[in-house]
Structure formats: structure tokens, C-alpha cells
């Protein structure tokens, strides 16, 4: 199986979200073998998108969640509320949260723990900034992010553990990681995650994010180390997104996944 996750970030209002959700449904209808697709829209349109995706295989995800269950936390959205609106997934520690909203490793670990204890499946996002890659410390930096998020985490046996490798310099830059570098990092992430958590291998999924588009998606998705992609900008353009979904379908057909 391959996973195609669409992170719409803070881009679409109600009408645009409804139109794009309908278009996503249409492209999936034509595919013989489809990857698991999930859309991560803004909080304000989760309910609208859910209604369109109801009774389809398309999943719903949130871009963030509160750590606390309930109470006086103005502006936060709890995990219970996300469950209530029909979310399956939630992103945790996206690089934009880490860099623009000062989420450090400790806070990300708490958020991941809260989400892991719920019915949602969290997707832990990691990735090094350009300076760390240039100084040869990409592995060390990502290992530290993983270690601090996973070291005290209890993962229920039946639950999936998703980790998105999104190098900060590749996000929104049009400069995706080289396939060889990405495959190497995915291997490292998978083996570290396995060592730290002792979770069942088949339940650990490592996906790539950072300037994925219709042209480069096949090259990433055909790699065995790549369980899927987390797409930002290209998920807002239906032709690009269609190309990415088609690439996943082709890989799944060719590799009998
Ligand atoms: P882009 O695909 O726009 O580079 O964004 C990636 C991302 O941040 C997905 O979470």
C-alpha cells in the first residue's frame, strides 16, 4: 500500500475546499488500484470535506491538535473534537509549527503522546533545516527529533506509526530531496523508530514530503523505503494531485502492492 496525504495548509475557504474535495473524489473513481488518500484541510472546513468524502475510502486529517483534552485553552482544538468531526489522522510537529510557532521537541513529544492515546493516527513530522544538511548533521538532527518524540511513547499494538520525513529546505522551495538521499534518510528513520519503539515493522510507515509534484512523485513512490508522500502546494492543483495519485496507482500495479 502507498499513502498520499494532502496538506492544504491555510489556503482554502469553504467553497474552494468543497470544489477541490469533489475533484479529488472524481480522480479516484477512475483508478484501478488506489493508494490510501487523506486530505488535511483547515479546521473550519473539516465538516464540509467529511460530508463529501463520506462513504468513500478517502480519509480525513487535521493539521494540528491540542495536547489537553478540554478546558480553558482559547484558540485550541482538542483531539476529541477532531474525532467528533470524523478525523482519522492528525499531523504532529510539522516544520511550520516548529519554526513559526516555536514547537520544540518536548512539546511535539507531548502532542504525539496525546494523539497516540486517542482514536486518531498521528503523523510525526521530522526533517532538518538547510544549515544542518550543509554542515553534515542531517542524520544527527533528525535522529534527535525522533528520539525525543518516541522514547517515552507507548504505541498500542494494533496502531500504525507514521513518520513524515520533510526536510525543511525542500518544503515549498521547488527543490525536492534527491531520491538517493531521501531513501537513505527513510532507512535511518525506519530502523531508529523500530529500535526506539520496538513496534511491529509492518506498522511503521515512513513517508516523504517536500516539493513533491506530478513529475517527481513516481521516482519517490517506486522506492520500497517510501510508503507514501505528504504533499503541500501540489495538492492544491488538481492536475498535479491527479498525477501524484496516478503515480502511486502505477507503482502499486507494477509492484503488486
Ligand atoms: P510542499 O509540497 O508545498 O513542499 O509542502 C510540503 C509540506 O509541508 C507538506 O506537509
UniProtKB/TrEMBL annotation:
Keyword annotations: Cytoplasm, Gluconeogenesis, Glycolysis, Isomerase
Subcellular location: Cytoplasm
Residue positions of the active site: 94 (electrophile), 166 (proton acceptor)
Catalyzed reactions per annotation: D-glyceraldehyde 3-phosphate = dihydroxyacetone phosphate
One of the GO BP terms on file: glycerol catabolic process
UniProt EC number: 5.3.1.1
GO terms for cellular component: cytosol
Pathway: Carbohydrate degradation; glycolysis; D-glyceraldehyde 3-phosphate from glycerone phosphate: step 1/1; Carbohydrate biosynthesis; gluconeogenesis
Pfam families: TIM (PF00121)
Origin: domain of life: Bacteria
One annotated GO molecular function: triose-phosphate isomerase activity
Broad class of enzyme this protein falls into: isomerase
Residue positions binding substrate: 7-9, 172, 211, 232-233
Main location: cytoplasm
Protein function: Involved in the gluconeogenesis. Catalyzes stereospecifically the conversion of dihydroxyacetone phosphate (DHAP) to D-glyceraldehyde-3-phosphate (G3P).
Protein family according to the UniProt entry: Belongs to the triosephosphate isomerase family.
Subunit structure: Homodimer.
Name of the molecule in the record: Triosephosphate isomerase
Amino acid at each position: 500500500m502507498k499513502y498520499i496525504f494532502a496538506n492544504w495548509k491555510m489556503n482554502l475557504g469553504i467553497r474552494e475546499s468543497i470544489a477541490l474535495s469533489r475533484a479529488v473524489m472524481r480522480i479516484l473513481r477512475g483508478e484501478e488500484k488506489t493508494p490510501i488518500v487523506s486530505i488535511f484541510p483547515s479546521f473550519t472546513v473539516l465538516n464540509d470535506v467529511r460530508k463529501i468524502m463520506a462513504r468513500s475510502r478517502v480519509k480525513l486529517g487535521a493539521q494540528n491538535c491540542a495536547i489537553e483534552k478540554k478546558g480553558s485553552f482559547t484558540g485550541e482544538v482538542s483531539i476529541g473534537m477532531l474525532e467528533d468531526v470524523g478525523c482519522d489522522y492528525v499531523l504532529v510537529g510539522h516544520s511550520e509549527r516548529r519554526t513559526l510557532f516555536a514547537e520544540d521537541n518536548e512539546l511535539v513529544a507531548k502532542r504525539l503522546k496525546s494523539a497516540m492515546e486517542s482514536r486518531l493516527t498521528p503523523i510525526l513530522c521530522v526533517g532538518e533545516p538547510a544549515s544542518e544538511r550543509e554542515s553534515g548533521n542531517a542524520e544527527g538532527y533528525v535522529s534527535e527529533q525522533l528520539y525525543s518524540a518516541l522514547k517515552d511513547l507507548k504505541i498500542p499494538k494494533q496502531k500504525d506509526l507514521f513518520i513524515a520525513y520533510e526536510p525543511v529546505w525542500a518544503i515549498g522551495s521547488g527543490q525536492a530531496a534527491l531520491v538517493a538521499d531521501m531513501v537513505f534518510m527513510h532507512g535511518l528513520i525506519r530502523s531508529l523508530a523500530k529500535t526506539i519503539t520496538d513496534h511491529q515493522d509492518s506498522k511503521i510507515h515512513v513517508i516523504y514530503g517536500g516539493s513533491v509534484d506530478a513529475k517527481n512523485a513516481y521516482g519517490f513512490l517506486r522506492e520500497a523505503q517510501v510508503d507514501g508522500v505528504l504533499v503541500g502546494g501540489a495538492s492544491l492543483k488538481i492536475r498535479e494531485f491527479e498525477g501524484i495519485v496516478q503515480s502511486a496507482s502505477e507503482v502499486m500495479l507494477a509492484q503488486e502492492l
